[in-house]
Amino acid sequence: MTSPAILSGRVAVITGGASGIGRATALLLAQHGARVFVGDYRISREAEQSLATLGIQSSACDVRNVADLQRLIDQAATIAGRLDILVNNAGIGMVKQIHDVSESDWDNCLDTNFKAAFFGAKFAIPHMTRSGGGSIVNTASNAGLLPRAHDPVYSISKMALIGLTKSLALCHAKDRIRVNAVCPGPVCDTGMMNADLEAAVDRAATERRMIAASPLAQAFGRMSHPEEIAASILYLASDAACMVTGTALAIDGGKSLGVPPTC
Questions:
Q1: Of 154, 162, 230, 256, catalytic
Q2: Does 154 qualify as catalytic in the annotation?
């Protein structure tokens, strides 16, 4: 069964698109008819080849470098003649208490998770305005909805990203540009999650704790899959969400709802 081309004629740029949620989103948007351009800090040969099978163009991009980010977005819009979708997906984690956080730690986390989304939007909005509108989707986190004790700087970066989402949604509704965020909980098969599990003293126990923290994840006995987050991004990028802007969609198995029942 072929997917309906609900994004036919649309042009999308995805940061952090070579693995995890970004890669799943790139593949899904392309399957639904979009012309997709991916930027990532590191792109493996295998990732490049799998993306290319759907005509997805990938290139190196360090989103902390504003010139890199502008080049990615401007080149995509120039090559394709328009820009309709931007997915600010690149991100890193940081599990450190405040007394262990250096200035370079702070800069790396905030520049990747927040500053890059701001400048990505800055560079994309003029192209979208010329195209008659567009959709920006920011990959935030349930940490942006509910502060977490173990990673305060990461939480700050994601709260700021949700604030940016709402502010830009207000600013650019007049341009028919919608700005939304997705807020995942624990997601398997991502660079961030794999790094956390590999660093754990007891990988299996750590994975069980992450699953147990989300009521639905615990009920299903698994974390979310990147493809499930990608499906929500597809919805927000499509005309089905033409009246949806300024939202922060929790896709976290209920982790941000509060303290779950004990039985």
A1: 154
A2: yes
